[in-house]
Amino acid sequence: MTRQKVVYVYLGEKLPKYAKASLEIAALYSGLDVTLLGNSILSNQVNKNKIEFISIEDFYNSINFMEIVPKINYSLNFRNGFWSKTLERFFVLQQYMDFYKVQKIFHAELDQLLFRCDRLLKSLEDSQFKGLALPFHTIDLGIASVFYCNDVKSLESMLNFANVLPSFNNEMELIAQWAASNPHMLKLFPTIASEVKRSDLFHRSGLEILSSTEIGGIVDAAQIGQWVAGQDPRNVNISKSPQNKYVSSPSEEILSRNDLLNLDLRLTSDGSLRVSYEASKTYNLYNIHLHSKIHPWVVKSHNNLNKLLNDSNKSEPITFSASRRIQISNFINTGFNSVSHHPIEFLNRFISRLFKFMTD
Question: Which of 230, 105, 112, 87 minimizes the C-alpha distance to 169?
Fold first, then answer.
């Protein structure tokens, strides 16, 4: 029997270390075969014994996407076009489905840790669900940390909706605005926040959340990953060491710090991840959105994954040396790029930061 698969997308010339490690982790724990769609230059950067690689040059034409690019408000220069690529992946996925006559697709972002997602897909297939499914962080932000589609017309509708909008900040806002106008074309994956807080905000907006019973668990939009391993260290000021237990600004849709302190995460012997809330509610958790990009450290040792989870269960925050290294490396690289283009501005900023670092 052919196994289901998870499809990743990476647009660029060099696969980051965290992405390679993420693919390896998916092969170990997701319960799925792993496919990467990417530029042909990436072909030799992938372990072909574990990962199926498909060159996007075989099927993808960017002309429709390029018409949308000017509508993105966030800087297109940020981290080599990050905000354009997060949207472009959906154009890649839509054309992949069309070209290869794919009827259903399960996609994950490369900064995920996936756990027994084969069970999630079986539950979705048994549920008679039709359309798109993904989690929301807040009512204004749809997060395609994990994304399921068994109706390419729904995906096409989302992309065509970008033509209607005068502008939007990023793909997360585009998803949320499209969903508000087309609630019949998608359902939201349940998250720990939707299970605990039971906010009716999504229902009042016409959006339906799949039940955790229906899909056999929950998914992580953003909160659990930031709690377990912190923010992306590149977003943390160099004067501070990155830590776990990051909490977003309070809102009706997400958990507070006190709520998150009641979480307990455990890996089972069959590769499932279980998350408990106040020891009274326990769910299968299909993914962790690991913004901190410490996947190479996670995969370095079999014990590191358990250590990551155990540290997240403690009440006090933990500093990860792997995150600090990413932070410092990014600071240095950004500095070199800045000094080469704007030497005086960089020198003034560097002196200011150095003084702050020494006086804190």
Answer: 87
Q: Are strands 146-149 and 186-188 parallel, antiparallel or unpaired?
A: unpaired
Range from 65-74, 77-86, 265-274 carrying the lowest mean pLDDT: 77-86
**Domains of the chain as residue ranges with CATH:** 5-210 (3.90.550)
Q: Which residue, among 193, 302, 345, 313, has the nearest Cα to 254 in the 3D structure?
A: 193
Q: Which residues pair with 168 in a beta bridge?
A: 72
Here the tokens at position 58 are: 């075989």
Name, of 42-51, 230-239, 335-344, the range with top average pLDDT.
42-51
Q: What rounded mean pLDDT belongs to the chain?
A: 92
Residue 219 in contact with residue 135, Cβ under 8 Å?
yes
Contacts of 284 (CB under 8 A, 6+ apart): 115, 116, 119, 216, 217, 218, 272, 273, 274
Going by their DSSP bridges, the two strands 33-38 and 5-10 should be labelled as parallel
**Under DSSP, is residue 2 helix (H, G, I), strand (E, B) or coil?**
coil
Residue for token pair 């496919």: 35
pLDDT band at 355 (very low <50, low <70, confident <90, very high): low
| Mean pLDDT confidence for 291-317 | 94
- Give the residue from 252, 199, 253, 197 showing the smallest Cα distance to 222: 253
